[in-house]
Design brief:
The chain has two helices and 14 strands; from the N terminus they run ββββααββββββββββ. The longest helix has 8 residues, at 56-63. The strands form three sheets. It has a six-stranded antiparallel β-sheet, with no helix packed on it. A six-stranded mixed β-sheet has the order 4-3-5-6-2-14. It is mainly beta and 171 residues long. It has helices at residues 44-48, 56-63; strands at residues 6-9, 15-17, 30-34, 40-43, 65-69, 81-84, 88-99, 104-106, 108-109, 116-117, 123-124, 137-141, 145-156, 166-167. It is globular. Helices cover 8% and strands 38% of the residues. The protein has two domains: 6-86, no CATH class; 88-156.
C-alpha cells in the first residue's frame, strides 16, 4: 500500500488502536476494528480472503470502519497503530472515471469480476450500483474532475471523525 495513500490537508483527528502481532498493516491502509477478534485493528485486505461482499464479515467492515492507518505495523509487532479519522486524501481509483463534488467514495468494487473491498483503491459514485444496498462509505468527493482520472480527492468520514487523542477500547 505504501505510496498509494496521499494525505493532502486538514485535521486528521488521530486515534490509537491496538493491533495483533499476526497482522500486517501498511501506512495508508483502510482499517476496521474486528469485533470477532477483540476489536483489534485489521486492514480491509484481511477481510478479502474470508468471504463475499454480502456476508456478516462485510457488515463488520461497514459498522467498524476506523479510518486510514498513519503508520505501519509489521507482522510480529503488537504496538498500537495511529489511525487518521478525518482529513482530505487523494487515493487511486479502481478504474479511470470522471468524478463529481459531493458524490460518495467507497472501498467496495461493484464490478462482478472484482467484487469485494480494497485497502488500496477506492471507487467513486457507486452508492446506487450495489444490488445489496450497502457500501463501505469512506467519505465525500471534494473536487470535480470532468475527464476520466485515475485518482479522487475526498473528505474522509468515520464514526470517529470528531474525536481527538482517543485510544480505542472497542466502544
Amino acid at each position: 500500500m505504501a505510496g498509494h495513500s496521499r494525505y493532502l490537508f486538514g485535521k486528521t483527528n488521530d486515534i490509537i488502536v491496538p493491533v495483533r502481532g499476526k497482522v500486517v498493516i501498511e501506512a495508508g491502509d483502510f482499517c476496521y476494528a474486528h469485533p470477532g477478534d477483540s476489536d483489534y485493528l485489521m486492514p480491509f485486505s484481511a477481510y478479502q480472503s474470508t468471504g463475499g461482499s454480502t456476508d456478516a464479515g462485510f457488515l463488520d467492515i461497514i459498522n467498524n470502519f476506523m479510518g486510514i492507518a498513519k503508520m505501519g505495523s509489521p507482522s510480529g509487532v503488537t504496538e498500537n497503530v495511529t489511525v487518521m479519522t478525518a482529513g482530505i486524501f487523494r487515493m487511486p481509483l479502481g478504474h479511470n472515471q470522471a468524478v463529481t463534488v459531493g458524490a460518495a467514495v467507497s472501498a467496495v468494487s461493484p464490478h462482478p469480476s472484482g467484487a469485494g473491498v480494497s485497502n488500496q483503491f477506492v471507487e467513486a459514485q457507486v452508492i446506487d450500483t450495489f444490488g445489496f444496498g450497502t457500501t463501505v462509505y469512506l467519505g465525500t468527493i471534494v473536487k470535480t474532475e470532468t475527464s476520466a482520472v485515475s485518482f479522487v480527492d475526498f473528505s474522509l468520514r468515520t464514526r470517529f471523525s470528531g474525536a481527538t487523542n482517543l485510544t480505542y477500547d472497542g466502544t
